[in-house]
Amino acid sequence: MPDAIAQWWDGVELWLTQLPFVLQFPMMMAVMLPICLFAARLIDRVVDRTTARVTPHKDAEPPVGTLPTDIREPHPLRPGGGS
């Protein structure tokens, strides 16, 4: 099975390298842009959640995609938002 996959990939690679650059570039972008976007978002989320758990500050910004426990807006006339 791995040999069949390797031979198939070699065929695809050979076909792609023989195309003109004008066709190679859009095809690679169509494949690589979504993969890179997914990887960047995954890395960002992992780093954000890891640093949120490790940080010693209780008032640190919460991870992306989660709501803070206290979502009250600070009062515009009082420093610190006093309630």
Keywords:
83 residues; mainly alpha; 2 helices; transmembrane; membrane
What topology emerges from the helices and strands here?
Elements: H1 2-18, H2 21-54
Walkthrough of the structure:
The mean pLDDT is 81. The chain is mainly α. The longest helix has 34 residues, at 21-54. The protein is built from two helices and no strands. It has helices spanning 2-18, 21-54.
The beta-strand count equals: 0
Radius of gyration, taken over Cα atoms and rounded to an integer in Å = 24 Å
Approximate helicity band: 55-70%
Name the poorly predicted regions.
Answer: none
**Beta-strand proportion:** under 5%
Order of helices and strands: HH
Number of domains: 1
The tally of helices reads 2
From the spread of the alpha carbons, the general shape counts as elongated
What's the rounded overall pLDDT mean? 81
Report how far the terminal alpha carbons are from each other: 67 Å
Structural class: mainly alpha
State the major sheet.
Answer: none
Assembly level: single chain
Biased composition (Basic and acidic residues): 52-61
Transmembrane segments: 21-43
Keywords: Membrane, Transmembrane, Transmembrane helix
Region (Disordered): 52-83
Please summarize what this structure is.
The chain is mostly helical and 83 residues long. It has two helices and no strands. The radius of gyration is 24 Å and the shape is elongated.
